[in-house]
Design a protein that fits this description.
459 residues; alpha/beta; eight-stranded mixed β-sheet; two-stranded antiparallel sheet; 29% helix; globular
Amino acid sequence: MIFPRQFKQSILATSMCAGLFASSMTTNSQAQSLDILQSSALKPDDLVVSMVRQLDLEKYKATIKSLTEFGDRRQGTERNRRALDWIEAQLKSYGCTNTERLQFDYTQAPSATSAQSAPSAQSVPSATTTATPAPRRNVIPSGGLGGGAGQGGSTLFGKRAKTGVNTDPLLQTNEKLRTLNAEQTPVGTSQRENVYCTKIGKKNPDEMYIVGAHFDGIGFGEAANDNGSGTALVMELARIFSSPEIDTDKSIRFVLWNNEETGLNGAYAYVAQRKDLQGIESPKGSGKYPEPKWLGMIQHDMMLWDHGMPVPQLDAHGKQVLDAEGKPVYVSPKEQRAEADVNIEFQSTSKQAEGAAKLAWFFRAANDKYATTYPAAVGFHMTNTDSVPFMDVVPAISLRENERGMQIGAGWNPNWHQPSDVFSTYSDKDFMLGLNAAQTTLSAVAILSGAKIAPVSKK
């Protein structure tokens, strides 16, 4: 890839906010850094613009398509392990060669139905790790005059459609895909793995941002959206940041989590095993930091489908369809809505809520400046994704297609954990929403990490 060798002072100034959310920074300096991002005009030779332009819709789609070749990538299966091997090989091919794997044990319950239930972000993970799992969190009060209780403290406003996890392989009509997904997770305890690679910061290698997504799926489809779309996003960012032409002041770790669908086990295991290793130089005096201090965690989970609130299902005569109980049936609109947006969420009840809110709004400002098609919105009910295990330790946010509690939880995405979550379900408008989320994260992390043109080596 080719980047400009000279760029204006405005982008140099934006790198001042690389430590925006470190605990040592004052509120005034945080506000000043955000003001720099919002007030500086775009320049043709802006480095971040050059980096964002390296994101390509067809490349993003191709990475998602490659991930779907492994079916739903259900945890504990051979197709999951082959997907993990492929992801690692791709990261290395991008130049992110310092790949590592984090191992943890997971115990699969005998009941296949209960094992595939949608996980609760408030529950204790069933994986065994080298440290005590996170304690059970209290249920967050939710619901209000506008509707019933949603996950993460949300309220379920408006029309709702059916949600759930498909556990019947015969509902997958594609015989080839049904065969690919035939292997089920073996009962008992066995090892699972996350994979990650790290862009090492030149100035502050002992500090880092974590950019993540889970690669496992369920539902007997291809897990194209949940979560091939998030996995591909993280991989594309790893590709661009791994260019030898780009240096960063701070480190960036690109992580692909396993076992999100069983209760965020891969992320919980990472926090349990690595939390107390932050910022420790090893070996002493080497200048190497196996686990740099966490500055922020950014998760990506389901990036493509924002078709809006479910609408009445009509029969051939234009009449409202009713269910067996005589209640109206609602379905998702077929097209991406014109007002689709990238949802950036933090959790208002977390111990790091203040820093997470600032991080979320910073990403919102980056979207304003560097996204090409879809805007972003900020919410405070982050839930049920791999940023949850981090949220009491470090500012953590999640980027999604919809608000997880209020909208996805109300049935806005009919393909969620269903056989229809296959590549062919989605249009370029859908894929473009995911690409705009990638633009948002890439630009924000480039600024926060202090990205700059690498000096030309003298031979």
